[in-house]
Design a protein that fits this description.
The chain is mainly α. 76% of the residues lie in helices and 0% in strands.
């Protein structure tokens, strides 16, 4: 009976190093996001007299259109996770052309998400919170809300940017024939990261925009 040879990309128990490394990173990254969300919750539910101004109502800050636009953005990001699932499924079937197309849809979804978020940031900085960059403005507003909003959404937006670049590298590798059906682990690892980004955004959207 031939002895089983374990490849350099696998642990002794059969889990690829890349997948194990990604899971380890995601666990640590989840703790970082948990810290951000815990800080947000602590600032929001503390005695408002300490800050001097009550925590603002998200609907009053973002407006109905802002909430609906962000809900649409959330839907787009969720759809990009679905296309990522299809991309991996096509790789496992050996249909790399279809996998390439699904991966392209995932990248486009991520770019649309970032574009809408950039539009929202521009609107908030110029119209809603102009005092952030103009000391002549005197606005009676809860600075902690603005700070935690930009920290949470900005940190997440950075993750989406990394995910778009990651997926783009995979897309180009498939397109040039450097990733084949035998390299499905690469797409699976990319998918783990992208689904994590999607899940975290659902939590951020719920805490910041809806509650």
């Amino acid at each position: 009976m031939a002895e089983m040879v374990i490849g350099p990309g696998e642990e002794s128990f059969g889990v690829p190093n890349g997948k194990l490394g990604m899971w380890t990173f995601l666990v640590m990254d989840a703790m970082t996001f948990a810290g951000f969300l815990a800080g947000y919750a602590r600032l929001r539910w503390k005695d408002p007299l300490i800050e001097g101004t009550a925590w603002p109502n998200p609907y009053e800050t973002f407006g109905v259109f802002g909430i609906q636009l962000t809900a649409l953005n959330t839907f787009i990001l969720v759809c990009s996770s679905v296309t990522m699932v299809h991309a991996l499924a096509e790789v496992m079937r050996g249909n790399m052309k279809r996998a390439e197309n699904w991966l392209l849809f995932t990248i486009i979804g991520g770019l649309i998400f970032l574009g809408i978020q950039g539009f929202e940031w521009t609107h908030l900085i110029l119209d809603v919170w102009p005092y952030l960059f103009d000391p002549t403005h005197s606005v009676d507003y809860n600075l902690n809300f603005a700070a935690t909003f930009f920290a949470l959404t900005g940190f997440h937006g950075g993750h989406v940017s990394v995910g778009v670049i990651y997926n783009l590298v995979c897309y180009l590798a498939i397109r040039r024939g450097k990733l084949t059906a035998d390299d499905g682990d690469f797409i699976e690892v990319a998918g783990l990261y992208w689904h994590f980004v999607d899940l975290i955004w659902i939590l951020v959207f719920t805490f910041v925009y809806l509650i």
